Amino acid sequence: MQEPPLRELRCDVAVIGAGTAGMAAYRAAREAGARAVLIEAGPGGSTCARVGCMPSKLLITAAKAAHDARRAGEFGVATGPIRVDGVATLQRVRRERDRFVAGVLSEFEKFPNEDRVNGRARFVARDILVLEDRDTRIAFGAAVIAAGSSPAVPELLAGLGDRVLTTDTLFEIPDLPRSLAVIGGGPVGIEIAQAMARLGVAVTLLDGGHALAGLRDPDLVARANALFAAEMTLHFGTKVERAESAGDGIRLTWAGKDGAGGSGVFDRVLAAAGRPPSLRGLGLEEAGLSLDEKGGPCFDPRTLMGEGAPIFVAGDAAASRPVLHEAARQGRIAGRNAAALVRSGPTGIATPAPWVNLAMVFTDPGTAAVGETYDPERAAERVVGAVDFSRQGRARIMDRAAGALRIYADRAGCLTGAEMLCPEAEHLGHLLAMAIQDGQTAQDLRDRPFYHPTVEEGLVTALTRIIDGLDAR
Question: 56 phi and psi, to 5 degrees?
């Protein structure tokens, strides 16, 4: 039987992946005058909308409602017994999640039909892609890899079926489990762990380190560990050594670095040890890209151009700052630079200054890391302004008085970073990120209007202590 002829496509810029970074790259390339195609392997809808930011925040918000109802008595408000309907909770999560996904897909469908290609792409040369079924061949001038990420699942959990969850499957379960083991205390792990605990699930979190939510400052680490230990069982410095079926659940056995160990049986286990880039099967070697020790492409972090080929990397595939606002910006940079490379050559490639680092974890209290964070080796170069939120006025009014904030400045008083575990961390983090990005000093920001009584007044306390510290020098 004669094989069907290959479908041949030619374009200036080929974008692999139609998530946040990929769609931004496609738009930017088109706006720069390039002929671009957008390749999506499915299911589409972006990591954020389908399995990341949006469904997790829906679960967290449900957990907050339950938590606030239980604590209403602190304000003299009687609510009676609180019952969480797990089926209804997860149905709402999926219903609203699907709205967000539909919005992303509708944007994708607005692009011209001739620019949208469905299939799994693979490089066969530095300027050629083929789709998985091999009936389409795409020749390009430049490409953007925006293939997203996939959850990492420890090998020892293989073969245990749907009792093992990832963020790709967590939001599809029909009801809340009675018990849950969370492996990994990073941003995703601690967010889900706290939400599940507040929804009535018995949660055990195991982590190989001794800090949660990516915190680094020792005081904040200690505060966080104490706060979260009140809501769940924590095992730090542990490694899961064995996982096996136990009735309808899973028995985990772990060992600690100090020689201590333990075991437990859980209805479900959530693997929350990270989301590495989805690069397998892309044929990076055939593209001529230089690869790092993990098999990922080496690339310039400012231009996003890979070494050895006219290929750019953006979003989760870049594995540098896997958050949506960075993915969108990286997509725009990669798309513009890919178009410029084709139309003007290397001299047309822009090297924009990076945004100040801004990372948040939506626990309660929340955390945020802005710019330069805790570094004991730079203590002599810094002035630190601290505030304890257990005594902050508005925090006490809301019965959310917990945590602390550290703001860092150089010896000239210029703001360089901050780390926090406190109420409204997402808002304080934004204010500080903008101030640092604009090159403000502690005095500059202190001189801005701050309303009373607000959580933002905590910044005033910390900034004043930086100013006083500068004067003391």
Answer: -65, -40
Is 237 within the bounds of a domain? yes
Q: Note whether residue 250 is domain-resident.
A: yes
Rounded to the nearest 5°, which phi and psi values hold at 469? -65, -35
- Residue labelled with tokens 């049986």: 265
Whether residue 136 has pLDDT greater than 80: yes
State the sign of the Cα–Cα–Cα–Cα dihedral 309, 312, 317, 319. positive
Among candidate residues 339, 315, 346, the one with its CA nearest the CA of residue 329: 315
Q: What's the whole-number mean pLDDT along residues 56-73?
A: 96
The pairing of beta strand 311-313 with beta strand 136-145: parallel
Of the residues 271, 302, 321, which one is the last residue of a structural domain? 271
Residue 320 has pLDDT above 60, yes or no: yes
Rounded Cα distance between 293 and 128, Å, is 25
What mean pLDDT is reported for the chain? 93
Residues 401 and 459 in one domain: yes
**Of 309, 330, 348, which one is at a domain's C-terminal end?**
348
- Name the residue range of residue 372's domain: 358-472
DSSP 220: H
Cα–Cα distance, 436 to 355 (Å, whole number):
10
Q: Which amino acid is at 50?
A: R
Q: How many domains does the chain have?
A: 3
**Cα–Cα dist 456/432, whole Å:** 11
Amino acid at 135: D
Alpha-carbon distances, residue 36 vs 9, 24, 33, 287 (angstroms): 11, 12, 9, 19
Q: Give CA–CA dist 428/437, Å, rounded.
A: 14
Q: CA–CA separation, 459 vs 407, rounded Å?
A: 8
6 against 390, higher pLDDT: 390
